[in-house]
Amino acid sequence: MKSPLVASIRLLIRDWRGGELGVLFSALLLAVSVVVAISGFVNRLQFNLERESASFLAADLVVSSSNPIPSPWIDQASAVGLAQGETITFSSMVISAEDEMFLASVKAVGGAYPLRGALSVDKGLAQASTAIPEPGTVFLAPRLVQQLSARIGHEVYVGDATLIVAGTLLSEPDSTTGFFGYGPRLVMNAANLDETGVVQPGSRVTYRLLVAGESDDLTRFREWVEPQLVQGQRLSSVDESQPGIGATLERARGFLLLAGSLGVMLAAAAILVAARRFGERHTDQVAVMKSLGATRGTIRQLYALSLTWLGLLSIVLGSGIGWLAQSAMFNALADQLPSEITRIGFAPYITGAVTALVCIGFFAWPPLARLGGVSPLRVIRREETIADATRSVDLVLGTASLGLLMLWYSSDWKLTGALIGSIAITVGLGFLVAQTLLKGSRQVGSSAGSVWRLALAGMQRRGTSSAFQVVIFGIAIMLLLVLTAVRTSLLDQWRLQIPEGTPNHFILNVAPADESSLLTFFAERDIEVGELYPAARGRVMAVNGQPLPDWDRFEDGARQREANFTSTDMAPEGNKIVSGSWWEPGTEKSLVSLEDGFAEDIGVKVGDTLTLRIAADEFSVEVASIREVNWESMQPNFFVIFPDRLLERFPNTLFTSFYLEPNEKHRVGELLDFMPTLTIIELDVAIQEIKTIIDQVSQAIELVLLVILVAGALVLIAGVSSSVDERLHESAILRALGAGRGTLLGAVAIEFAAMGSLAGILAILGSEAAGWVLQTQMLDLQYQIQWVLWPMGVALGALIIGSLGTYACRRVVSVPPLQVLREL
Amino acid sequence: MIKTSQLIKRVSTAESELEILRGIDLEIKRGETAAIVGASGSGKSTLLGLLAGLDAPSSGEITLDGINIVNLDEDERAILRSEKVGFVFQNFQLLPALTALENVMLPLELAGIDDAREKSEEFLARVGLGERFHHYPRTLSGGEQQRVAIARAFASRPLILFADEPTGNLDTTTGATVVDLLFGLNQEEGTTLVLVTHDNGLADRCQRKFTMTAGHLEEAS
User: Fold this and answer.
1) Which residues of A, range 198-227, sit inside 8 Å of B by Cβ?
2) What are the residue ranges of helices labelled H in A360-448?
């Protein structure tokens, strides 16, 4: 052949016109566009969510310290190119010009604060602002405005400094850091800090260095600073400081990766089916070409080049479709997402292209490569056998390549292993079960009516190809079941994480004598209030009689540790005892239950003796149990818990929590008027933000699921159409021989429905196996066998495959048999 | 032009080995027309397949235009076919995705001939399909499809043309038209023609006539 390039393009154009390429090209296009769309969408979503969750810290990374941040650290942050800000927080009495006093949580801010998220400030006269206060001015939280009766323009005194109120602070991004910063917020400019004279050596102050920038720069900074941290200094990202958000994002990322990987697998399955069909349909064409003088090499070269063109075309078009799809998905969530403009970058296109190349090389090429081996004798002897369209070596190579592709895509061997493993199970069991059942079904079928006999005989006759179809249907349904099941568990878990009515306010410092009047206050206003826990601040002094070093000694190893102690005779909900056992209610013994991380920090296990100090009293307790605490729950959690009777001996206060609807926010002011000594921690804004993030990722997950469902449907269609020709041909002969329309269509429906239910069974077995691994090992979710899916899988398999198959073969009865016989 | 000696073809079946051709000796000279007749399953098509190099014999020699094709591998035989051999089949074997013109152009393209289009148009016109260049096979009648196949066979100007039941799928009148065309072109081009047929009338038009019976070939005098 003179110009293989030209000839291959010509072949492609002719095949295209002849409708031969449709399914193969759609499958390739599907692969590229699903991968580009999902990975592009995931990149953008992740970027946006990280930005949004970073606003919980007002930065990407925060160094907090009880001493001023060393200046070389600030220099280093500049050197690696990070933006910086600083906050200094402390509690201080704020006094108004009218001599009203209130204990406020003061935050002095400077630099580019906030680096992520924004302040929202009402400056009166309908002016809103997001800038930090000018030097000499402050913003007050609404409750402070109320308590101090200080309006905009009034003076307030913080220590020795006189500052002007410039606005009401509506929200601040990092409101939840410094959980125990008691009192309503006052935000001032760090430039005025020295004037106040409040911050003295030894005062309880938290200094924070906020940095933000590119992730590589952040990593460099983190690696540089981490080894230099000493006791009292901490480095945190949003994952670490907000485990609830961190875990939510981590799971969402896991799910989306899973979805993307499933997209690739579905596309590969579609390509496998389509290429097989393409190869079969081209067998005669190749035999003719070879009889006309085409060599094996010419044929291989021709088809290799055609496939290359097809691949290039699908990469280009698929990238475009993928881009459109991710942008449509993103726009569908536009209301919920911050309006930051993000580009999807090159990575998704590269992923799409590599996916296309792997799919072409390992799934589309093998059946076409074998076309070269077609015997030219087929032109005079139709019965001349065709080379097997799919060989087991192809399947093994294909699965291996898919595994590598997924590993590259997800960087997660567990996910890859789980999916490849479950596919292997489905394929292996599939051929076994399909062959056995298909054999058995003929015996059943031969005694059934003629429609059944026709259907089951047909299935039996196409033994291997029916088994292949069952396996492909099984894989597609399995992947969809896995994704649906994981999505359901994920959304359920998220809903449970912050259920409706989760307490969003905490009250500290309730004097035991005030307990009943506090309860009356809430009862009168019909607000539900949680259990009142006793709380005392204490310190662990010694373990098994060995004194621990002072807590502020800068050295490694266990140290004295200060914590909030509480007591209860009932194991707190959501805590899991990991060693030891919970005590009998009413016990008089000196026991303690520790949080597992806390126990590890001070190096103790069940049975050890701790010496503790509350105020001036020292006493000893035996470690009775160690608990795992779910820090993601927005419930009160404790490091150290005693039996009720033990803490009664010590002076303590009570604390509790309650839930307020947004429109009842004024109750906080009422409560403080009623009991001015209370400390109230307001978490409503933070909880609302977590809920917003959960809503966003939930919607994103639903959207991605939808895309994957569409991909799955295309695989099923490809699978069904792969055997349509043969069925049409047979049915045309049967019709010519006088078979009725009802009988033929009924037989087709029964045949596909039977394959569908077999596929359903396989899919359920595979999906339970994959689901177990994915949910317990990767997404850290509880696994439950989804019994409800079993009958549903079989019934839906039968229904969907049955209808698709019948629809695809409707020409069996609608087109005159002669026309069918002539066309094929 | 074509010569075989002691040509044997065996095939293995599930039960035993079957000898389809049992020592065929045959010689056909350049420009001759020859017919092979015989009952179904007598081995006619197998012999045609071997002569055309579509298959390899179990033993024996086949010489085509002086070349012993038994010693050639499949690709070398393919090249030989593209240079010297043309085909007409019972079921036409047109590619459904290609138009009439493209079907005729295909062997010329495979042989790397430059003016494939002009040559193909010329031959299509010669078989009376000058108006149907861009029709697909499914829109053509059986006779028209076979005429496209004949144009395709002659377009590459083969030395030898093999025809396998060229009228087998056609009614008598159409069949006669196609046969006239086949012999007419054969005469004009000086091609050696070997055809396999059931049709004695068609066989009688050939200069030589062979009968195949259970793997043995005899020339009718």
Assistant:
1) none
2) 365-369, 392-410, 413-446
CB-CB under 8 Å, B112 with A289: no
Residues B104/B148, Cβ–Cβ less than 8 Å: yes
Give the model confidence (pLDDT) of A168-222 as tens digits.
Answer: 887 777 765 444 446 778 999 999 988 888 887 666 788 899 999 888 888 899 8
Residue A677 in domain: no
pLDDT at B16 over 80: yes
CB contact under 8 A, A295 and B93: no
CA dihedral A614, A617, A618, A622 (to 10 degrees): -60
ipTM of this model?
A: 0.89
Task: State whether B109 and A1 contact (CB < 8 Å).
Answer: yes
Task: For residue A798, give every residue at least 6 positions away whose Cβ sits within 8 Å of its Cβ, in sequence order, or none.
Answer: A753, A754, A756, A757, A760
Residue A666 lies in a domain: no
Do A203 and A80 sit in the same domain of this protein?
yes
How many Å apart are CA A707 and CA A264, to the nearest integer? 12
Helix residue ranges, H only, A292-391? 296-332, 347-359, 365-369
Q: Which residues contact A49 (CB under 8 A, 6 or more apart)?
A: A249, A252, A693, A696, A697
CATH class of B29-58+73-220: alpha beta
The encoded tokens of residue A768 equal 């339970």
Q: Per mean pLDDT, which of A26-35, A508-517, A526-535, B50-59 is the most reliable?
A: B50-59
Closest CA to A56 of A344, A248, A254: A248
Query: Domains in chain A: how many in total?
Result: 4
In a domain, A179, yes or no: yes
A343 Cβ under 8 Å from any chain B Cβ: no
Q: Does the pLDDT of residue A445 top 50, yes or no?
A: no
Nearest CA in chain A to B44: A380
